[in-house]
């Protein structure tokens, strides 16, 4: 397939070859699946129920009751009786987690909570003021456990997993500073989350680290987790952040320590299977895969059935579900069993998420397999960033010298990670109808006869390759849908030419002129069609999208500056014509007809002022006014850590939770007037200071 110039942000220029000795073609064509899990879209600006106390919140420990613990501490009591020093780094085998309690913290200070996270967990907002909440969010109070009787329904734990980091196998990794407390179920929605502390102390998976988190990285994760959720991007969540005044953490300098309380429907990741594959643990691979399907995804019947034509996934936009567990689908050599359906569900979820990253200019910065969610959640926030000037080659990770995790490479890397997952599940995929018979159900080495293994390997290769086509289709369909919405178009009436005539030229222009990715879409949302009805008007309004104050290259070259403005004007003219096709209706013009002064008429068509107002309102609902850029987060960190401010963190969180508003200060949200800072809001939503664009940071946190 020949890639268009701007498919560079979507496509890959290389192909990856995995241990199946099969090439997986570079992608550019993926599509949409079902909508996001209800939990990731459940946050809204309106209050939804009063919530319950932390004590009354239903809690469970399904993960630890379903899967094998570290044999070194087979029970919570064994771990609880051990000294904290005995819970430190070592190799853990034959287990998916270790029982481990958080370190005790002295005089913690609760800095901020996310009201949306409180609501989605099912907690009353007032609960954040209680001592029980403040002690729980730093690990000083353990729920479900009686330390006197050494008994209870549950106990904290840390996961065991491995991973490929920057493409190389890194061995055992695991939750080196994350400790899960319990699973909670929202009484109103029925959604279950696993609640976890980050920065709560050493675990057997800490390797050479200290189990701590610094305030700097904790603020970044606290804000971005909730910001992505508010944008409709699947993500793990952040409930609260606490400063540990007696914790001094050595990184490149001595920094204050902190703990973030975060939660997700599951913290399982590709690395959980990677470590089992590396160790040849076939029994535990099957057991974990079964747990993911039955407990995390809610049952085998919730997984996608075989596509009508797996080699052309566009023929089946929405796959059938409710396929019984033991059903085998597909012709000989490409039969799909329940584990193949599980793999495809994970593929589809991750395709949707990376499409949203690309459409909203978000970069994770370190997409190792241990940072890639089985649920398709954005997770493990380190050197992440939102795009400033549009640059497909930009990576926010200053250690990523080869640009492996750059913006343009994200879709490729997620597929690379998915191939590694397919390899880990390969035996279960390739076994097809015989998956529940020996030798696949035994704990021995499995198939050792090359002749018997050959069809199993060939079938797994075929299914992974077909999943790659599905990934392409799911990805690109979702990307096109989001781009259409961001440009004020109706995805249901999308034209085959939209990508080549509208999306690609826009991205080319943004890159060539180094224009701000987010500000362009937001300013376009406020541009009436009547203001660009002629070529001269387009040229005049094109200046709105260039940096003000002489920040663009060639500002001292009048001819070059004029060419830049003309290029934007030319695109605006094409965009206007396309919007007229979607929004121009005779019904809205009324009796006066399209020549009425109340329409944005031109020689090529018109849109009534009413319809154009609706179009601008719709665009503002998908084009954020505020995103937590790197320079804003740096300012937050400086003001909280060095200046001792607290209110600024809460104001930034409020804006992150309501990113599509025109303004915030003095307005009512959930029945309460928000006392913001107007000057701060204007700064944070205006042009990025020239010296603060495209910032980078390290993985050190």
From TrEMBL:
This is Selenoprotein O. GO terms for molecular function: AMPylase activity; ATP binding; metal ion binding. Residues 590-608 have a biased composition (Low complexity). Belongs to the SELO family. It holds the Pfam family SelO. GO terms for cellular component: mitochondrion. Keywords: ATP-binding, Magnesium, Metal-binding, Nucleotide-binding, Nucleotidyltransferase, Transferase. Residues 67-87, 303-330, 590-612 are annotated as: Disordered. PANTHER family: PROTEIN ADENYLYLTRANSFERASE SELO, MITOCHONDRIAL. Residues 78-87 have a biased composition (Basic and acidic residues). Its cofactor is Mg(2+). It comes from the Eukaryota. It comes from Chaetomidium leptoderma. HAMAP family: SelO (MF_00692).
């Amino acid at each position: 397939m020949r890639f268009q110039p701007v498919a560079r942000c979507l496509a890959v220029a290389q192909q990856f070859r995995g241990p199946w000795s099969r090439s997986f073609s570079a992608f550019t064509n993926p599509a949409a699946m079902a909508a996001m899990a209800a939990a990731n879209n459940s946050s809204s600006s309106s209050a939804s129920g009063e919530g319950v106390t932390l004590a009354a919140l239903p809690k469970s420990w399904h993960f630890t009751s379903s899967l094998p613990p570290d044999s070194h501490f087979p029970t919570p009591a064994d771990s609880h009786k051990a000294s904290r020093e005995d819970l430190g780094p070592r190799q853990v085998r034959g287990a998916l987690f270790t029982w481990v309690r958080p370190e005790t913290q002295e005089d913690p200070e609760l800095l901020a909570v996310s009201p949306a996270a409180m609501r989605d967990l099912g907690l009353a907002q007032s609960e954040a003021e209680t001592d029980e909440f403040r002690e729980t969010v730093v690990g000083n109070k353990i729920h479900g456990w009686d330390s006197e009787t050494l008994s209870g329904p549950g106990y904290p734990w840390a996961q065991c997993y491995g991973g490929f980091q920057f493409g190389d196998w890194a061995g055992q990794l695991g939750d080196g500073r994350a400790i899960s407390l319990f699973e909670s179920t929202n009484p109103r929605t029925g959604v279950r989350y696993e609640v976890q502390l980050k920065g709560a102390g050493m675990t057997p998976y800490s390797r050479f680290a200290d189990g701590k988190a610094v305030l700097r990285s904790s603020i970044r994760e606290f804000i971005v987790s909730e910001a992505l959720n508010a944008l409709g991007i699947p993500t793990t969540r952040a409930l609260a952040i606490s400063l540990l005044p007696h914790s001094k953490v050595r990184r490149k300098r001595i920094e204050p320590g902190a703990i973030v309380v975060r939660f997700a429907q599951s913290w399982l990741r590709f690395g959980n299977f990677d470590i089992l594959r590396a160790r040849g643990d076939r029994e535990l691979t099957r057991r974990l895969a079964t747990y993911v399907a039955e407990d995390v995804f809610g049952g085998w019947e919730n997984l996608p059935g075989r596509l009508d034509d797996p080699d052309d996934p566009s023929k089946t936009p929405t796959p059938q579900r409710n396929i019984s567990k033991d059903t085998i689908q597909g012709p000989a050599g490409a039969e799909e069993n329940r584990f193949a359906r599980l793999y495809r569900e994970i593929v589809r979820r991750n395709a949707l998420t990376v499409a949203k990253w690309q459409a909203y200019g978000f970069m994770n910065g370190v997409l190792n397999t241990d940072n890639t969610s089985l649920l398709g959640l954005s997770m493990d926030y380190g050197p992440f960033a939102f795009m400033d000037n549009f640059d497909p080659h930009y990576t926010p990770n200053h250690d990523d010298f080869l640009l492996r995790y750059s913006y343009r490479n994200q879709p490729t890397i997620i597929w690379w990670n998915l191939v590694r997952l397919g390899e880990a599940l390969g035996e279960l995929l390739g076994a097809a109808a015989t998956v529940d018979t020996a030798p696949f159900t035994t704990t021995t080495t499995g198939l050792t006869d090359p002749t018997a293994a050959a069809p199993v390997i060939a079938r797994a290769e075929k299914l992974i390759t077909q999943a790659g086509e599905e990934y392409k289709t799911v990805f690109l369909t979702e990307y096109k849908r989001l781009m259409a919405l961001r440009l004020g178009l109706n995805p249901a009436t999308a034209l085959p030419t939209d990508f080549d005539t509208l999306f690609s030229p826009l991205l080319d222009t943004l890159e060539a002129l180094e224009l701000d990715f987010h500000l362009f879409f937001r300013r376009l949302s406020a541009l009436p069609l009547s203001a660009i009805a002629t070529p001269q008007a387009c040229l005049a309004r094109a200046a709105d999208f260039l940096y003000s104050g002489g920040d663009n290259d060639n500002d001292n070259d009048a001819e070059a500056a004029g060419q830049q403005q003309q290029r934007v004007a030319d695109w605006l003219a094409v965009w206007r014509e396309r919007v007229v096709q979607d929004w121009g209706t005779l019904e809205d013009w009324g009796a006066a007809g399209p020549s009425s002064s109340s329409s944005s008429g031109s020689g090529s068509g018109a849109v009534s002022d009413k319809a154009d107002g609706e179009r601008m309102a719709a665009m503002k609902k998908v084009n954020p006014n505020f995103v937590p850029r790197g320079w804003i987060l740096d300012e937050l960190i400086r003001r909280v850590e060095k200046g001792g401010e607290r209110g600024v963190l809460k104001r930034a969180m409020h804006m992150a939770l309501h990113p599509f508003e025109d303004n915030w200060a003095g307005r009512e949200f959930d029945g309460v007037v928000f006392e913001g800072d107007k000057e701060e809001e204007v700064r944070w939503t205006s042009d990025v200071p020239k010296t603060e664009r495209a910032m980078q940071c390290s993985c050190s946190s």
